[in-house]
Design goal:
There is one protein chain. With about 475 residues, the protein is an alpha/beta fold. It has 2 domains: about 400 residues, Amidase signature (AS) enzymes; about 70 residues, no CATH class. Helices cover about 40% and strands about 15% of the residues. It is built from 15 helices and 11 strands. An 11-stranded mixed β-sheet has the order 1-3-2-4-6-5-10-11-9-7-8, with helices on both faces. β7, α8 and β8 form a beta-alpha-beta unit. The longest helix has 22 residues. The radius of gyration is 21 Å and the shape is globular. The two termini are about 20 Å apart. The structure holds glutamine. The site of glutamine (GLN) has 13 residues, from loops.
């Protein structure tokens, strides 16, 4: 197996036993990128010089006999809405086309502290709004399993990089499913931690009450390693939690005996691809055989999740995106006076989906509509949260499909935003409730397209999710 196809923990072993050097690994990844990137287009910026410099540093450390971190010398991709000092951070938007942040996002800083090798900044839907990377202001990323199909989104570049051998792991962000949905489309593992587990400092804000950074990896073990690296309270993010962080590698034991896992009936309704339904029900059977107890449950407010999300997320986005005014950040298009300058800048530089969200958001927040839309959405959000709280009184985990369908063809849904929004039907409730959720691969369809299942846990209980995911993965 080529080096670029291995997991971080396998490569760590090869590095520490000096079977390979970080320089060799880096050269291997880049020679694969030279071949694959013009087909996959996972990256917006490639940082080869920086990667080679880090590899040199790591090799020197190893030759001095020093101990290295679990992710040291491991090539990774960073979603391009995570601020990287001195490296362009565009959010795949023309409005930030030449923006170079003066500071690092905390999660990225923690990856740098491990001396991981930064391969580049990965493509996304503009400002993370979308489910396919087709909303990128620059180009669409292709699914490595079938180049005619989307990789999912919005962390499509990060995910395609990991699935296509262009990075060993990646950081993504998930506001309504943007780590888990592309992970399921590309056949890799994607984890959205509990809201507050990972600092949002330096993550360009989309919907601040929903956004979380998380890992995209090739297996559950790597997922635990990246979580260990990036979780933790941060003075720069007042919503980050002081809760104790377990060593997530302690969860890598194959044992689900006695775990109670709920299957919510609302997630297995008409419209879901029958091949996905069968695959996820087989996962439930597998858990049962291994000693878990499977219970049918109901999360009655699920049907309102999409509508709720598509009011709250655009409302927060409309507010967050006010800062792109041609003055403080990024691009400026001139005009006769300041109002015209701002209008021209925003009209020319924002893409259609971003404008749609700003309009929906401002409408929902405006006088006269605030109570009817935004406030109503907040109330329904509480009901959705309560569904989970009630269910978790008797459960350890909830098992669902990650997506209602597998990766679709590029162009297939662009003309129908509502259909695109339905992509998030299984993932948005988890963000609305602030809970942790993972997507794990569970086979392929007869057309060879990856399928993923989702495990949702109690707040701050990433450990149980990892344990069950690891158990399932161990049976493969
Ligand atoms: N697809 C969802 C949206 O378009 C989720 C995006 C995300 O999680 N960043 O809003």
């Amino acid at each position: 197996m080529a080096l670029y196809d291995k997991t971080a923990h396998e490569l760590h072993e090869l590095l520490t036993t000096k079977k390979i050097s970080a320089a060799e690994l880096t050269a291997d990844i880049f020679s694969h990128i030279d071949e694959a990137e013009n087909k996959i287009r996972a990256y917006l910026t490639i940082t080869r010089d920086k990667a080679e410099a880090t590899a040199k540093l790591v090799d020197e450390k190893i030759s001095r006999g020093e101990k290295i971190f679990p992710l040291e010398g491991i090539p990774c991709a960073i979603k391009d809405n995570i601020c990287t000092k001195g490296i362009k951070t565009t959010c795949a938007s023309k409005i930030l086309e030449n923006f170079v942040p003066p500071y690092d996002a905390t999660a990225y800083k923690k990856i740098l502290a491990q001396n991981s090798i930064i391969v580049g900044k990965a493509n996304l839907d503009e400002f993370a709004m979308g489910s396919s990377t087709e909303n990128s202001g620059f180009y669409t990323t292709h699914n490595p399993h079938d180049l005619e199909r989307v990789p999912g989104g919005s962390s499509g570049g990060s995910t395609a990089a990991v699935a296509g051998g262009e990075a060993i792991f990646a950081l993504g962000s998930d506001t309504g499913g943007s780590i888990r949905q592309p992970a399921s489309f590309c056949g890799v593992v994607g984890f959205k931690p509990t809201y507050g587990r990972v600092s949002r400092y330096g993550l360009v804000a989309f919907a601040s009450s929903l956004d979380q950074i998380g890992p995209i990896t090739r297996d559950v073990t790597d997922c635990a390693l990246v979580l260990n690296a990036i979780c933790g309270q941060d003075d720069m993010d007042s919503t980050s939690t002081a809760a104790q962080i377990p060593d997530f590698t302690k969860s890598l034991v194959a044992d689900v005996k006695g775990l109670k896992i709920g299957l919510p009936k609302e997630y297995f309704v008409k419209g879901i691809d029958p091949e996905i339904e069968t695959a996820v029900r087989n996962v439930a059977k597998k858990f049962e055989e291994l000693g878990a107890e499977i219970v049918e449950i109901s999360l009655p407010h699920t049907e309102y999740a999409i509508a709720t999300y598509y009011l709250i997320a655009p409302a927060e986005a409309a507010t967050n995106l006010e800062r792109y005014d041609g003055v403080s950040y990024g691009a400026r298009v001139d005009g006769a006076d300041v109002v015209e300058m701002m209008t021209n800048t925003r009209t020319e530089k924002f893409g259609a989906e971003v404008k749609r969200r700003i309009m929906i958001g401002n409408y929902a927040l405006s006088a006269g509509y605030y109570d009817a839309y935004y406030l109503k959405a907040l109330k329904v959000r509480t009901l959705i949260q309560k569904d989970f709280t009630d269910a978790f009184e008797k459960l350890d985990l909830i098992l669902t499909p990650t997506t209602p369908n597998v990766a679709f063809k590029i162009g297939e849904m662009v003309s129908d935003p509502l259909k695109m929004y339905l992509q998030d039907i299984c993932t948005v409730p988890v963000n609305l409730a602030g809970l942790p959720g993972i997507s794990v691969p569970c086979g392929v369809t007869k057309n060879n397209l990856p399928i993923g299942f989702q495990l949702i846990g109690k707040a701050l209980d990433e450990a149980t999710i990892l344990k069950a995911a690891f158990t399932y993965e161990s049976t493969l």
